[in-house]
Amino acid sequence: MNATQLTTAGTKSSGFFDIVMYARAYINEIKIITPAKGPKYCALNASVLDVGCEGKTLYRSIDLIASGEQVKGVLRGLMPRWPQDRMNHSGPRWAADINIGSIRAEAYLKKDGNVGAVFKGRLINIRALRIADEQIVGDGWTDDIPPPTVVAPGFINQIDPEKGIIRFAAQDGKIGASETRNMTLSLAGEIPAISELIARGLIPRGYAHRATNPHLFANLAISGLFCEGFKGKDGKPAAALKGVLTEVRYLKANDNIIVSGQKKQAAA
Asked: Name one Pfam family in it (predicted).
């Protein structure tokens, strides 16, 4: 499959793969970083909100870099009001509906010797922003927490029907030089496109069998994405991405398109 075909298969015409999370988050801290080498940049810490069992709110920390003129313009105009300390939530609460690009997980070693993991990404759009009860960006607001959704293009490397899991190599960055974000996904009930693959016998058995596996390129909608740390085979800290596959928005198996439509993102 060449670059033109992949672009048609659910990526932007700019020639880039895009992993994007659409979420509501609390913005805990904003600051300017001056590295020893390279230009200054604006860094944020946020807590992505989700709803877990029994309606309990879940908070997943993410470190972000402000990216794009829309985001930088909004933040620049609010600089005197920036939240200063992620550990001290004094002052008005910043709540925002945002788009996060280039999601990845980064491992770190905790003080107790265990391995932790944290999300990293780029803040690429602020769709709505409230500071306390003041609407700064966007029209309208609901207190209901929208479930965070990740939309990602990539390759399905393994389908395990017995365990109900998918191993997915999500792609991010320039086509032909993209980075891979490996994800392990459980299934949210029956997914018609996955059932179709199984019925046709198009069942990849993992990366080790890539030479004989069917070639499956897909654009997936994923919910409940989280990251966890572990020690790799070399003993070094590593991080894994896990979530729930909720929808297949595009799917090409070898030269056959099984799911042709990509639903437009109202939040984009």
From this structure: DUF3577
Same fold, 16-137 and 149-259: yes
**pLDDT tens-place string over residues 137-187:** 998 888 899 999 999 999 999 999 999 999 999 999 999 999 999 999 999
State the Rg of the chain over Cα: 20
Strand segments, DSSP code E, in the chain are 16-17, 20-33, 41-51, 57-66, 94-109, 115-131, 134-137, 149-160, 165-174, 179-187, 216-231, 237-253, 256-259
DSSP 260: -
pLDDT in tens, 212-250: 999 999 999 999 999 999 999 898 999 999 999 999 999
CA distances from 76 to 29, 45, 88, 120, 266 (A): 14, 16, 22, 21, 26
**How far apart, in whole angstroms, are the C-alpha atoms of residue 47 and residue 69?**
22
- Token duo for residue 144: 């209901």
152: which 2 tokens? 């990602």
Q: Mapping DSSP to helix (H, G, I), strand (E, B) and coil, where does residue 265 land?
A: coil
Dihedral sign from CA coordinates of 18, 24, 25, 30: positive
Which residues lie below 8 Å from residue 21, measured CB to CB, with a gap of 6+?
A: 48, 99, 100, 103, 121, 148, 149, 150, 225
Q: How high does pLDDT run on average in the chain?
A: 90
Q: What is the pLDDT of residue 188?
A: 80
Architecture of domain 16-137 in this structure: Beta Barrel (2.40)
Q: Which fold has domain 149-259?
A: OB fold (Dihydrolipoamide Acetyltransferase, E2P) (2.40.50)
Give the model confidence (pLDDT) of 85-94 as tens digits.
877 777 899 9
Please check the confidence at residue 96 and state whether its pLDDT lies above 60.
yes
